[in-house]
Amino acid sequence: MEDKLKTIIIDDELLARNLIKSYMQGADNVELVGECENGFEGVKMINELKPDLIILDIQMPKITGLEMLELLDHKPEVIFSTAYDQYAIKAFEHNAIDYLLKPFSRERFLEAIKKVSERIIKGDFNSESTSKLSEELRGGFLDRIVVKDRSKIHIIPVDQVIYIEAMDDYVLIHTDEGRFVKQKRMRYLEEVLNPSEFVRIHRSSIVKVNEIKELQQYEKESYVVILNNKTKLKVSKSGYKKLKEILNF
Amino acid sequence: MYLNHPFISKPRLAFFYIFVWVVIMAGNVLLRWVAYGVNPGVASVEFFAFPFMFSIIGIPIWYVIKYSTIENNSVGRIITSHIMAATIIVLIWLYLGVVIMKLLHPEFDEWSETGIPANVFFGYMLYLVYVLFFYAVNYYQGFREKVINESRLKSLVKEAELHALKSQINPHFLFNSLNSISSLTISDPGKAHEMVINLSSYMRYSFKHFQTDKVTLREEIKNNQYYLQIEKVRFGEKLNALFDVDESCFDATIPNMILQPLYENAIKYGVYEAAEPVDIVTRATCIDDLLEITITNNYDPNVIAKKGEGIGLRNIRDRLQIIYGNPSLMKVEDKRDKFVVTLFVPQN
Q1: pTM for the complete prediction?
Q2: Looking at the complex, does the CB of residue A136 fall below 8 Å from at least one CB of chain B?
């Protein structure tokens, strides 16, 4: 086979990476082009080397493997490797995702590689289902949002979010430290943020309840909220209803 | 419900019963002799024939009350069954009494004119006394049983709570360790061997003890060192475990596996997220009847950890509270770049 799959290993543990490397020596259809030990390095290396395949640990320091995937411009095929995560395994099975449970055998590893390369040959890419996976995997509401600003990665605790604005296919996350673009839809953010803290007041905005200073009527039946930082945002009818419920007026 | 007669299951009660009857008999005979000049022999026969005979015939009344307990039967049924039982017992008793009197009493005919009707009334009265007595015994037994059951239930609940609180081996840790071993068998079999031994020792320790068991601090620390050595293989230079334990503290006792979650947290939130080496320092001092253990780790305050922590710490607090009955045996301090947990373990 001429075209070997360019592969990157992303795992925080040296011993785990070493094991995969030793397994890869027995596979003639993959070629190791890089390895790294956290998601920050991972994003950089993937965007630089544009691998065909990454072998990705989920539990890693700083940002998880899944958060890392959200930040990629180039989306390679992914084989997840994880030690123990009952939620992840359920989601993997549900989405027909390739995964390896540590410790895994050489045979199991080669089998996973074979499956991916067959899929690539057929032109059947799996990146769609992996991005769906990370949405499925969050347990409960989000604590933090990971964003990329040019080459810099920011981890925004949701406590620091003031409001979120819709911008076509993106959202603009406003915080004390500035604005960040995230490639997600409002629908998604509305779902993953705790509804007792964040309210979708309009088609185009989600507001943190604690940041609301005033609610003003500016026409009959139409309102605006004024935030602590003086931003004015329109409130839709259904948004007004939700605010009424949560603020108890 | 058990039908066992209380005189059998509680011999002390039987002795007491016999004693009371002997005292009553002696008192009765003596009183009649001294106060009324009745011949003690005649008085004894009269007492024996009736009241004393009842003390024997009355014993089975227990079964009547057991079959007509107040809780499970209607008032009508209880009264009916007692009237029937009383009549049968009184009739048998009277018959036996009369036979005894006829055989032993010198003035039977004279006695029988007034004695028989008086004893019918007396028999029913005695029956009533017995019924009340046995109901009391039955009630008391039920009460005791309830208390015992309750305390048994309580200790079961406590055991179950402790079972839930005691740190279990984290599956994530276990599988990651096995993965490290799997890797080492290829690159460094000697180290793999060592790690298998450490993992086995640590697992044996965590399985060995019951939830309420206390161990010496020496044993607890030794076994946590196995745990830390395993993690050291995974994290290398990043993990630095230091111990500063007073010689005198090693024999102090501590609930088993109570320190492990603290080390696990220190690794999860300190070592795991850090780029720089992290010191996990264990200090122990003993003052009077208190063992004080402090575990400190530095951490990177810029890391925004995912929530969900705190369960391990709460479990330790709850466990200490269940074992020592004191809710304030753990102190947690977050000093921005340092996390300090102190346990106060009473000794006595």
Answers
A1: 0.65
A2: no
pLDDT at res. A1: 45
**Which residues on chain A are in Cβ contact (under 8 Å) with B186?**
18-19, 22
3-state helix, strand, coil in chain B (%, to 5): 65, 15, 20
The residues on B that touch A, with CB distances below 8 Å, are 171-172, 174-176, 178-184, 186-187, 233-234, 236, 272-274, 303-304, 306-308
In a domain, B226, yes or no: yes
**A103 contacts chain B (CB < 8 A):** yes
- Overall domain count for chain B: 2
Residue-wise DSSP of A64-116: -HHHHHHT-SS--EEEEEES--HHHHHHHHHHT--EEESS--HHHHHHHHHHH
d(CA B221, nearest CA chain A) in Å: 26
Query: Cβ contacts (< 8 Å) between B304 and chain A: which residues?
Result: 143-144, 155, 157
Cα separation of the two ends of chain B: 41
Query: Contact at 8 Å (CB) between B223 and B201?
Result: yes
How high does pLDDT run on average in chain A? 86
Domain range for B193 is: 166-346
pLDDT at A88: 75
| A:177-236 residues touching chain B, CB 8 A cutoff | none
Chains A, B: CB contacts within 8 A come to 62
Domain span holding position A225: 144-247
Which residues in B102-129 are b (16+ Cβ under 10 Å) and which e? Answer: eeebeeeeebeeebeeebeebbeebbee
Pick B180's closest partner by Cβ from A13, A101, A139. Answer: A13
* Distance to chain B for A16, nearest Cα, Å: 6
**Would you state the structure tokens that stand for residue B3, as one six-digit string?**
């039908």
Tell which of B160, B176, B198 closes a domain. Answer: B160
Share of chain A above pLDDT 70, in %: 92
- Read off the pLDDT of residues A196-206 as tens digits, 9 standing for 90 and up: 889 999 999 99
Of B160, B179, B194, the one marking the end of a domain is: B160
pLDDT tens, residue by residue, A145-182: 889 887 788 889 888 899 999 988 889 999 988 899 98
For residue B273, list chain A residues with Cβ-Cβ distance below 8 A. 61-62
B60 located within any domain: yes
Mean pLDDT per 10-residue run, chain B (348 residues)? 74 89 89 86 83 86 82 84 90 88 80 80 89 88 86 76 66 91 94 94 81 84 93 88 92 90 88 86 92 92 61 82 86 89 92
CATH number at residue B218: 3.30.565.10
Indicate whether A10 pLDDT > 90. Answer: yes
Q: Which residues pair with A153 in a beta bridge?
A: A148
